[in-house]
Write a structure and sequence with these properties.
The structure is a single chain. The chain is of the alpha/beta class. Helices cover 33% and strands 16% of the residues. It is globular, with a radius of gyration of 18 Å. The N and C termini lie far apart (41 Å). About 5% of the residues have low confidence.
Amino acid sequence: MPDDAAAARAAAEEESAFSHPPVDPDITAAYGDHPDQVIDFYVPRPGREAGAPTALAPLVVVLHGGAWRARYDRRHVTPFAAYLARRGFVVANVEYRRGGEEDGGGAGGEGGAGGEGSVPPAGRWPDTFDDVAAALDALPALAGEVVPQADAGRAVLTGHSAGGHLALWAAARHVLPADAPWRTDGPAPLRGVVALAPIADFEVAEKLEVCDHATRQLLGGQAVFAERGRYADPARLLPTGIATTLVQGRADVVVPHQVAESYAEAAAKAGEMVGLTLLEDVGHFPLIDPAADACAVVAEEIAQLAW
């Protein structure tokens, strides 16, 4: 458990990150029929801080966090999306189905840590994964249609927390088990992945009780945790061959740095080169807070892959 000072700092960081008013997108497009199967697009804004002016701009795909729970939707990362647009990127902010009130208890089959419904269940199996796969498959053509200046050939995938998990997972679809419905024939056409405080190793996350056992709920409960983990746990889907950077705060008490470190170690053992940027005195939310220095670090990591 975090001490009082760490808890107070985490609360202040969260308050800052959520203090920015939501930023409406330039365009919203659907990739499916469900209300959550939509992508918000942000076009590059004047005042670009990185990259040389070009006719086309790199495409940054954002997958939001929130423990795969319905109470957190894409709106909370719209200031982050707009921040990236000001740095010259076309940004695609992806929504997907999550677990919670909307699905009558969710496919997770469990409530909180004690299984008594103390928190909404995390995720919807297999809907959450269906949506992310469908969104990424539709995105190149969709972006080309609604944002002609988007260069899908210079796409970078990023995500925060649970969204960081989904970003790593989406980049690993070509190494899923052969019977996985989301498996692709080859790697996604990405310049790379920048995963922010990702829930990247399910075994370690469960041991640390991350987000009230959200990983266990996402997969449908303890009885299927190990089996479904073969299809969902990024630490078991290596190597991907796609350039990957993890950005993590050492002071993170929501998704502790041990989760990212375990993934990086597993990647190294699998022969993959994965960068791990650990930020001192930084917690969970500054990575997506435009007012925080850590957000500039994130943008620079994305720029190094995209430009």
